[in-house]
Amino acid sequence: MIDGSPTDNNATLFAKGAHSVIDKSGYKILAEYKTPGWDPAQAQTWAASEIAQFGTQIKGIYAANDGTAGGVIAAAHAAKFDLSKEALTGQDATVAGMQAILAGDQYMSVYKAIVPEANEAASLAIALAKGQHPKAPTTVAGASGPGVPSFLLVPVAVTRDNIESTVVADGFDSVADICTGSYAALCTQYGIK
Asked: What's the rounded Cα separation, in Å, for the pair 96 and 187?
């Protein structure tokens, strides 16, 4: 597991969510690292040592975002470790993440659509400007103190099969940005146009 920054509460929450699934899955977590500053280079250095130590014992790699996943990919390529046989996750649906998915180096990325987030934020801002106090449907535990009233949206796992119908269709990542150079043929292969 390659978590995000130890100083970012989002990274703590992402890791907690990942543990809530992985810990009951029957898979053993071989090692876990909190990546200072979400730095891909530090994720790469740590991943290189873990690939060297655990090799074929690795069945999957949780990376907290596409940047740290990129560090894993660089470490795996340097070690000639075939990621296409393992599941590597990411998050944020970046262009680089989409390209890594197309290339078979990364299995998926978590996509949080901006339009629903912006619409919810705008609705809340309008209500507050009118002097209203809308109630959030849920509360999420904070790093310290009381929970935070929250409106939670559903994230989407983006794989080769739905890049076009998610991030491209929403205008989050463009075909022109994703399908450059050697990725153009992969975009054609997977029907991204």
From this structure: 14
Question: Tokens 């399908």 correspond to what residue?
Answer: 179
Report the C-alpha gap between 115 and 112 in whole angstroms.
9
Give residue 143's pLDDT band: very low, low, confident or very high (50, 70, 90).
low
DSSP 149: E
Cβ partners under 8 Å of residue 94, min gap 6: 66, 67, 109, 173
Contact 141, 147 (CB under 8 A): yes
Query: How far is 192 from 84, CA to CA, in rounded Å?
Result: 20
Q: What mean pLDDT is reported for the chain?
A: 94
Domains of the chain and CATH, by start: 2-112+154-189 (3.40.50.2300), 115-150 (no CATH)
Report residue 27 as tokens: 């898979």
pLDDT single digits (tens) 74-125: 999 999 999 888 899 999 999 999 999 999 999 999 999 988 989 999 999 9
Give tens-digit pLDDT for 12-59: 989 999 999 999 999 999 999 999 999 999 999 999 999 999 999 999
Nearest to 64 by CA among 117, 9, 23: 9
d(C-alpha 98, C-alpha 86), whole Å: 17
Beta strands in the chain (DSSP E): 2-3, 33-34, 60-61, 87-88, 109-111, 138-140, 148-150, 156-158
